[in-house]
Amino acid sequence: MSADLTLSDVQQARQRIASCVRRTPLVPSATLSERLKTNVYVKLELFQKTGSFKVRGTFNKALSLAPEAHAQGLVTVSGGNNALAVAYTGRALDLPAIVLMPESSPPAVIEATRGYGAEVKYAATAAEAFAQAAELERDGWSYIHPFDDPALMAGQGTLALEILDDVPQVTDIILSIGGGGLMSGVGTVIKALKPLVRIWGVETQGADSMARSLAAGKIVTLEAMTSVARSLGAPAPSERTFAMAQQFLESVTVISDKDALDSARLLLDRLKVLAEPAASCTWAAASRLQGQFSPGKHVVLLLSGGNVSLDLLTSAS
């Protein structure tokens, strides 16, 4: 386990953020169990506030800071779920929030971020956005990194405590990877409390920096993010999340956009939940990994977010 993050950190985060986040449902799925010929459950984190797991981490980070650290407010870089989470956290804690976004960010994300009361500032490139964030941090704003922060990871890891409460017999967890903050938090909890549980990572083609990094044995940076699964769009893992992936994961399965979208349609049709491609790809990966799951296994799919328009599912082939 990384010295940066401990089980105790996650347990403290659970208490700290309990009044700020939802405890999301975890339910068995007869349809998915029948198809995979094992016991399949879905952790419905897409019902979390702002539509993704991200608020767990942003609340833990913001609430961990000393009051004087909030002299100005919160700032982050994001054109996706992290933007919504930081904006919502700022509103809930009565703190100003600035979100630096690529100009190409989805209009729905821009609108929702502003709807939560955050100020949106555009940057032409990711490098420019991070440079602006660093400048604001020097001016007294509290910077919330999209994934590479132990306090953030501890918040995301609270989700794993809920999984163990609800399905103590769990044998396998399948989760998607963007920068790796969620995986790091979940892995820290699982390997401390139930080390035999296997954690399977998933990425989509064009957003597969972790899979490429693990294959190369060193951090690989993507030149461009081309997948429709925008919330998996970290150009590279951090040193910390790369090390944790090496430690915690069985493997990373890379799924095509088409398979992720097909899975989203299946989940909508059969489970009546609309998962974004960055979350629905876990079902596509489970299908690919079917040979790993005997009838006695208990497999939890993490549906980490639901911020996707129905248009994407109907227009993409």
Please characterize this protein's 3D structure:
By secondary structure, this protein is an alpha/beta fold. The chain folds into 2 domains: 7-53 and 149-315, Rossmann fold; 55-143, Rossmann fold (3-Layer(aba) Sandwich), CATH 3.40.50.1100. The protein contains 13 helices and 10 strands. It has helices at residues 7-17, 30-36, 54-64, 81-92, 107-115, 126-138, 150-166, 181-193, 209-216, 239-248, 257-271, 277-288, 310-315, and strands spanning 26-28, 39-44, 74-77, 97-102, 119-123, 142-143, 172-176, 198-204, 249-255, 298-303. The strands form 2 sheets. It has a 6-stranded mixed sheet, sandwiched between helices. Strands 5-4-3-6 form a 4-stranded parallel sheet, sandwiched between helices. Helix 3 crosses helix 4.
Q: Secondary-structure map with pairings?
A:
Layout: H1 7-17, E1 26-28, H2 30-36, E2 39-44, H3 54-64, E3 74-77, H4 81-92, E4 97-102, H5 107-115, E5 119-123, H6 126-138, E6 142-143, H7 150-166, E7 172-176, H8 181-193, E8 198-204, H9 209-216, H10 239-248, E9 249-255, H11 257-271, H12 277-288, E10 298-303, H13 310-315
Class by alpha and beta content: alpha/beta
- Listing every helix as H and every strand as E from the N terminus to the C terminus, the arrangement reads HEHEHEHEHEHEHEHEHHEHHEH
Distance between the ends: 42 Å
Give the second-level CATH assignment, the architecture of the largest domain: 3-Layer(aba) Sandwich
Strand % is 15-25%
| Overall number of domains | 2
The description of the largest β-sheet is: 6 strands, mixed
Shape summary: globular
Task: Estimate the helix proportion, in percent.
Answer: 40-55%
Count of helical regions: 13
Instruction: Kindly report the CATH topology of the largest domain.
Output: Rossmann fold
Mind telling me the C-alpha Rg? Answer: 18 Å
The overall pLDDT average reads 92
Biggest sheet, spatial arrangement of strands: 1-2-10-7-8-9
CATH class of the largest domain: Alpha Beta
Low-pLDDT windows of residues: none
Q: Please report the total strand number as a whole number.
A: 10
